[in-house]
Amino acid sequence: xxxxxxxxxxxxxxxxxxxxxxxxxxxxxxxxxxxxxxxxxxxxxxxxxxxxxxxxxxxxxxxxxxxxxxxxxxxxxxxxxxxxxxxxxxxxxxxxxxxxxxxxxxxxxxxxxxxxxxxxxxxxxxxxxxxxxxxxxxxxxxxxxxxxxxxxxxxxxxxxxxxxxxxxxxxxxxxxxxxxxxxxxxxxxxxxxxxxxxxxxxxxxxxxxxxxxxxxxxxxxxxxxxxxxxxxxxxxxxxxxxxxxxxxxxxxxxxxxxxxxx
Length: 262
Ligand SMILES: [Zn+2]
Ligand SMILES: [Zn+2]
Ligand SMILES: [Zn+2]
Ligand SMILES: [Zn+2]
Hints:
By secondary structure, the chain is mostly beta strands.
């Protein structure tokens, strides 16, 4: 009887052993099944509005947001913003941004990435490439990418300025200003280079700052008439218009005007 009883026991043990192998092989399959992180709803745009319109402005900031799911917790999030083929003008520098985020709020299974990145004021406007890479504790990584258009925070258009004026009269200046950060003021500087005043003439060096009707506007037509003194020596004058926004960004426009004698 005892030997008969042992037989089923051996079978039972064999089944247990088989199940054990089966369960172990299942759990061995589970490791590779831990998927690389997923990144969804990647959005970005103008910072102050948390915009998703994929446009940002120099001297302002970019809002970026993404939902991350990492079965093995996130180890790091790397953000890269750079341009391909943008021409760098005088006074501009290339912008090649990279930052690795390891803040504790991100080192979890399903963090929401949300950052605001300052855009330098002195970089070329144009299209920039954004890459967001999430790496998990197991070393798996996933990348999403996109493009953002970086624009000047102040633009001047439809410029109409007289090119000649008789001294003692005034000249007309008109242009359209778009300033996403609101206009602070517009300054005008008129001066000559190397004009020697004759008898009875006085060097004309004009500077004026305009705010009334312009301050706090984001889109406005600048229209002024500037008086030229009757005593100004005739000749070519250099004019510089400078628009400053509420964040201290400036945009200048230069031209020349001929002052003549009637
Ligand atoms: Zn934001
Ligand atoms: Zn790139
Ligand atoms: Zn006018
Ligand atoms: Zn000058």
